[in-house]
Amino acid sequence: ASNAMWGGRFASGPAAVMEAINASIGFDRKLYAQDIRGSLAHAEMLAATGIISTADQDKIAHGLNTILKEIESGAFAFSTALEDIHMNVEARLAELIGPAAGRLHTARSRNDQVAVDFRLWVKDELFRVAEALKGLIAVFLTRAEEHAATVMPGFTHMQSAQPVTFGHHCMAYVEMFSRDLSRVRDAIQRMDESPLGAAALAGTGFPIDRHRTAKALGFREPTRNSLDSVSDRDFALEFLSIAAISATHLSRLAEEIVIWSTPQFGFVKLSDSFSTGSSIMPQKKNPDAAELVRAKTGRVNGHLIGLLTVMKGLPLTYSKDMQEDKEAVFDAAETLDLMLAAMTGMVGDMTVDADAMKKAAGSGHSTATDLADWLVRRLNLPFREAHHVTGRAVALAEARKTTLAKLPLEELQAIHPGITADVFSVLSVQKSVNSRKSFGGTAPAEVRRQVRYWKKRLAKG
Ligand code: ARG
């Protein structure tokens, strides 16, 4: 049989494989609530502008609400032959209310319908992501406050660089996830325009009121160009970009947790609820959740590249290619939600071993820069010369298999006669960290100040 929606010009129905490649109901059924909301707003506007009767609008609204209940209770029979969520809903509406159902699609196309449904969905998802990010940031703020003075090694090239505090390290992630949060808010602002009423691509001759539907659906205003309205998928790309950047932040953190939780580092212990054992090696406690956060980033990043690639060759306006936008976004959203939840749990639950961190902080001559700075401050050496003198002290400590702080004063004086016992006051990791009071530096007082700043800023919403 030919299609009920456009059977007028078709003598026969689609091949089975045509139906299989064409149908999106398997995934776009996720848009059912947005689709029904959009149709309710559209029908209300059609009646308010006199395009359909209020009697028909009543029937349509009643039927749509019934369908919503059917879908939510699991009673709704989705059909692949009906292609997508839009036609599934409309066909059921016709069964429920008869000919009035045929009036709902006046001054509308599936092109603006899908654009509005999908925007509504992505906007809702961004609000969910914002809440999840705020939850993760709150956990980091708590941990940063607890560990504002806990010394750990800071790394560059994964080599010991200078001592920092674990609180400061946590606050670095607060900065990253806060930028993600601000990207979410910016994107919501930009996508807060309703494409409904653009119709197929050119607008419509019916006297519709797009401001009315925009407002009813919670958008700031209608989009301004009908061609752009049905072909724009930037909002989906922007969501995927935000998701990819945030996932990348989560993945770097996950990688650090994997490293920190090795017995060789021993900086953190994951809780039993966020680790797994081995079926053969009884001693093992594996950071699977962190590894999966790291791995799932590949999926999220892939979806961004996938949709960019789908869109890049499309002439205006709608092409069926655009139907491929949904699985990418749905999977990225589901994956990101899970990653954020897992990371929030892991970071909140993990035990920090301050002693192990402090011990490691002193290794690798991590206070060498403090020695060089001391030479500059006390002996007025140019920094480059101080660097050279310090390098010799480090080489000596290496040769003696000891640390800078444990070198005898006479040996240091053999390298530079101006060195006095006062130098030892800067060689401990705690002193090193305490001294770095510059704005944004790692000194505990500065870390606590940054925690207060973010708490206040986040409380403002
Ligand atoms: N299922 C389609 C999509 O997701 C809906 C729009 C179809 N429009 C069309 N002209 N074929 O993009």
UniProtKB/TrEMBL annotation:
The keyword Chaperone does not apply. One of its GO terms (molecular function) is argininosuccinate lyase activity. SUPFAM superfamilies: L-aspartase-like. It is found in: Cytoplasm. It is an enzyme of class 4 (lyase). Gene3D superfamilies: Fumarase/aspartase (C-terminal domain), Fumarase/aspartase (Central domain), Fumarase/aspartase (N-terminal domain). One of its GO terms (cellular component) is cytosol. InterPro entries: Arg_succ_lyase_C (IPR029419), Argininosuccinate_lyase (IPR009049), Fumarase/histidase_N (IPR024083), Fumarate_lyase_CS (IPR020557), Fumarate_lyase_fam (IPR000362), Fumarate_lyase_N (IPR022761), L-Aspartase-like (IPR008948). This is Argininosuccinate lyase. It comes from Kumtagia ephedrae.
